[in-house]
Design a protein that fits this description.
Number of helices: 14
Shape: flat
Distance between the termini: 113 Å
Radius of gyration: 38 Å
């Protein structure tokens, strides 16, 4: 049996491998100086989402913190640094939840302090005045609404709901002016023409004059209803959607019923157009029963009727209410 000598290099290699295996059995902290805990490598357990029960009802919070004035009155709070913002929030909150009485009371106090108290630095009253007008209209307080309209008539320029209250107050001139201003900005809102028809009808029925004089107002009412129907039928409606089609059919049926009411009163738009073709002047409008309206408005209605075929408009030409 021969024993071969082991080369010195191989002996060194064996010793090195042995040394490496010994190193690997030692802890990493001893080698690199790190001290990890096993807890550092534990992952979180998967969380399960709990669904709300079927009978869950969300809580509706109707009591805002801004309604708490302490022992102070609205007059005192309005003079504080952030008092006007607090009162404004409480007014808007009440109006949103249809607490019209309290919203109206607070709005009137807000307007009074801002207008007559020199210590109050509030200047913009348009939004609060609008809310006060809407509350007065909702509560049918027409006398108060009448005063608010005199205080700031411009602020209601684009609020179509209050136009009906103009008519109830017998302010047919302002009602018609407001409707025409609104229509010039919102050409596809057919509701305004229906309101204009009501204005002409109520103006005619509220005066005890000769029937011939009232006929021109009935003719204009008939024209207004035809204009409303023309707009609604030529506007873009996605009638392939069920609820949109039902809304369209309902609105058209309502407008056509009101058109028949004007016909029963003898209204005929062609007769108004024929009368305007005779080139009447402003002096002739009183004899035609149009004393409640501005002559410029009557001329505008006639001109709009003459070019009524241009109803298809680009969306870009219609201004949003917020931009008015």
């Amino acid at each position: 049996m021969y024993i071969f000598p082991v080369p010195s290099s191989a002996h060194k290699t064996f010793q090195c491998q042995k040394t490496n295996s010994q190193i690997m059995t030692t802890g990493n902290s001893d080698l690199f100086g790190f001290d990890f805990s096993d807890d550092d490598f534990e992952t979180k357990e998967r969380q399960t989402v709990k669904f709300m029960p079927d009978g869950y009802q969300p809580k509706i919070e109707t009591d805002g913190w801004f309604h708490e004035y302490g022992n102070n009155s609205i007059d005192d709070v309005m003079l504080e640094q952030h008092g006007p913002n607090q009162i404004r929030s409480s007014i808007e909150h009440d109006y949103f939840y249809k607490n019209y009485d309290r919203a109206l009371s607070s709005a009137l106090a807000f307007i009074r302090v801002a207008k007559y108290d020199e210590k109050c630095k509030v200047t913009g009253l348009k939004e609060i005045t609008d809310i006060a007008m809407h509350c007065a209209a909702k509560l049918n307080k027409l006398d108060l609404l009448n005063e608010l309209l005199d205080y700031d008539p411009v602020s209601l320029k684009y609020h179509i709901y209050v136009y009906t209250k103009y008519t109830e107050l017998g302010r047919y001139t302002e009602a018609m002016v407001a409707c025409i201003c609104y229509h010039k900005e919102r050409k596809l809102d057919y509701r305004v023409w229906a309101i204009m028809a009501d204005i002409f009808m109520k103006s005619a029925s509220s005066t005890s004059t000769v029937v011939v004089q009232n006929e021109m107002r009935y003719h204009l009412a008939n024209l207004s209803m035809q204009r409303a129907i023309h707009i609604v039928k030529n506007s873009r409606w996605k009638n392939n959607i069920d609820f949109v089609r039902r809304r369209f059919e309902k609105d058209v049926a309502g407008l056509e019923n009101r058109l028949q009411e004007t016909i029963q009163k003898g209204g005929n738009a062609d007769k108004f157009a024929a009368w305007m073709a005779t080139a009447p002047t402003e002096d002739d409008k009183d004899a035609a029963g149009l004393a409640d309206f501005k002559w410029d408005d009557i001329v505008w209605i006639y001109q709009d009727w003459a070019v009524r075929t241009d109803i298809i408009l680009d969306d870009d030409t219609i201004r949003a209410v917020k931009d008015m």
